[in-house]
Amino acid sequence: MDRTFDIKHYRGFFSITCLCLVILYGPLIIVMIYSFNDSVSITNWGGISLRWYVEIFTGLESAKFKAAAWNSFSIAIMAAIVSTVIATAAAIGMIRGGNFKGKFASFALISLPIMVPEIVTAVATLIFFSTIGFKLGTLSILVAHTVFCIPFAYLPISARLQGIDASYEEAAQDLFANRWKTFRYVLMPIMWPGIVAGFLLAFIISLDDFIITNFIKGAGIETLPTAIFGSVKQGIKPNIMALSTLLLLFSIALVTLSYFIGKRGEANQNTQQ
Amino acid sequence: MTSAVSLHDVRKDFGSLTALSDVTLEIEDNEFFTLLGPSGCGKTTLLRMIAGFEGATAGTIRLFGDEIEHLPPNKRPVNTVFQNYAIFPHMNVAENIGFSLRMLGWTKLEIQTRVDEMIEMVKLGALVDRKPSQISGGQQQRVALARAMAPRPKVLLLDEPLSALDLKLRQEMRTELKRLQRDTGITFIFVTHDQEEALSMSDRIAVMSDGKVQQIGTPFEIYEHPNNRFIANFIGETNMLPSTIDTVEGLNLVCQLEGGQMLDALANCDNIPGATGVLSLRPERLSITKTEPTGKILKGELGDRVYLGTDTQFIVKLSAELNLKVRMQNSFFQGANYKTGDTVFVTIADGAARFLVD
Amino acid sequence: MAAGTGSGSTVSAIFSPVRLWLLLPSWIVIGFFLLVPVLLMLTYSFLTKEFRGGVIWEFSLASYDQFLFDRGLFGDEAPVVKWTYINIFIRSILQAIGATIFCLLIGFPTAYFIATRPIQSRTIWLFLITVPYWVNLLIRTVSMKFLIRDSGPLNELLLYIGLIDAPLHVINTNFAVQLGLFYSYLPFMVLPIYASVERYNFTFSEVASDLYASKVTILWEVILPVVKPGIIAGSILVFVPSLGAFLAPDLLGGAKTFMIGSLIEDQFKGNAGNWPFGAAASMILLSLVLVVLMFYVRAQNKDQT
Questions:
Q1: Which residues, in sequence order, are CB contacts of A66 under 8 Å at separation 6+?
Q2: Residues of C in contact with B53 (CB under 8 A)
Q3: Which residues have C-beta within 8 Å of that of residue B233, sequence separation ≥ 6?
Q4: Given an 8 Å threshold on Cβ–Cβ distance, is B133 in contact with A181?
Q5: Residue C126 in 3-state DSSP?
Q6: pTM for the complete prediction?
Q7: ipTM for this model
Q8: What confidence score (pLDDT) does residue C54 get?
Q9: Chain B neighbours among C 7-36 (CB < 8 Å)?
Q10: Handedness of CA B47, B48, B50, B55 (dihedral sign)
């Protein structure tokens, strides 16, 4: 059969893409499969069972994991809320504020947490807390998380805001809305998908953080990542597989949710046909 | 009587760029007033200054006698129909129309009544619950109109509201808007670059270019008695013939063209003999004949013609460099009798030639 | 025509005090909890180590000294450059470069392939590529560790097929760390390149082909220069995090693959730590990263003119 000439086609690129996907998903799928392994040993396959899932919730280490999960989720929610509020305010100030003197510096400052390597942030934060005598614990983790969640929340929010025509706000003002009412009744509803995406992103980032949390958590507090790390250091156990699979599926669900909210938001935004 | 909107010596600078200067005009109550000009002439900037989205660098803006420059947009009793409509995408038609009333604190019942009135007025009945993404461009435009008129503004500002519509819809909306203005008695300030729109809809027009007001007048005045070359060229079509004044009698002039021909013309201000300028002649005020008429005439060679359905436009070559466009109505003129290359005479209707200096 | 985009119009000029209040929280939070700590860390690198970990507030160049030299710069004998720590940095840089190249070799064809798919399937491909990124990095690294260890499924599979006779000892090697870094940051390489290729106008390829160029030549001489910004952006996004990475070297590497991240982490563990030294190493890492970023920004600005 004649192969039609496709200028875009390069031989082997498809295979490499598939290889790429295999490498990306392989380890995850393997872990998921082995989380159902009935055998105690992780090397031998003993049949399918849910025992390890049960074990996380009821077994020896379950109390530790539950406490860690509680810490992780509560810190993530609070950090996400605070950082989203701060990021929303900052986005409005930056994008609707025109060109003002400190604009570039502001932007640099907001992006700073992403640019500084995590380990450097961890060290700096530890030194800072220790110098001012700030007790290490849940609160210290919360503060540190809020800081680096801000730029992550900022990204989707500012992207959304930039795509919103300023004429909506002008129309609202023309129709007698003051600044606050313009924000509340017009700007925020249209911005909302971006804010939600920012919140979810901040939430996941905080939930997943390991390096910074590990540095400044102090003794006695664990989050899910630090608990998993501690356990893995002693050797990979099957219950860790189960826990990892749960976290994995949760992250994927959250991202998919964020993706669909974004799509719906785009549909609402388009008033021109 | 106090004018609805009064601008005095208004100036607007954007940094080193002067967008508007020396703008002085009075817009009367209950008037359909149009700001007409090419892109970049400053008409939209002027509109936005009346609305409150831009501040004046100098000069005063009064609304029914009260100075309003210091007031933010949400404190001025004027409302705007935006060029891109800016219908809130997350509210349906009824909520959009009622938005201003909500901001002003009207009761639910009052809002409901008024919204129904407006929907009736722009005929959007069936679409009340629809979201903007579910209605057409023309329908969105009517929503924008209803929304801006709901709070009973004294002055309505319209920023090129018809430019996004296709031809048929545009023509319909022109009649609609004219009717609305007449029925409601609201002063309309309309911005457009389309001279046909301006001529057909306005009570008075302000022609603008390069940030300045060139002329203010009724459509008739603007078309028949343009004050300068720019206006004569911008509105409709015209022929520009360089000429020198020979004699002056009040506003009646006799001018001599470069080729020596003498023509009667009207001036728009005092002139002296010997002054140079151009004669503006509208193609439809000229006609072609084969027989030599009496009085002041022009003679030339018939060139190309363009068939335009109702009219035909002929080119008459007066000399090597000078061409005249003449428009003849096809129902009254037998173009077939005239061949390219024939010698023809061009007669000018009384008062049709205008002498312009700049 | 005056556009109401908020820049230069009155709507935003009235805004100034409001704008200040909107930006203040982010300034305060990031300024106080990141900027100040980093400056404090800089200060710490010049302090003296306290016996039990922590610091004594006494100026000293000891940390930087210790980093470079075997004996004090101001000691009795001539200073001998100590290679231990410098080696660690060099190794980290090489690992980061390696990971970047690895990501480039696999990431570029992948990004190109996805960008040339029909629009509907494009989003699906992108989704597939980015979803693994959303899984916790720790879990991903642990999964990779589980997979490639001596008695792990990969070796089992290879043994089973008969491709190898004895288990491949991959874990705890430099290669394992490379693999881990590649696995961690691949999407960062794919996405910017995808964005660049998506904007590329394939009519250029057609023109080149019409003028007798082979596909390879087209790729090398026509496509690559246009896509360069994406490649550079992707490389930076992989190189910088790889440099300071902690998880991949710690979980997948061993004593022989010690990198900056682990070195720094060591300094803050309990009593054996040396805080000023850790601070100094962090400052050096930060400086390295800032230098790379500055090159990037300057290269971008040059491209813009």
A1: A57
A2: 4, 9-11
A3: B240
A4: no
A5: helix
A6: 0.79
A7: 0.81
A8: 63
A9: 8-11, 13-14
A10: negative
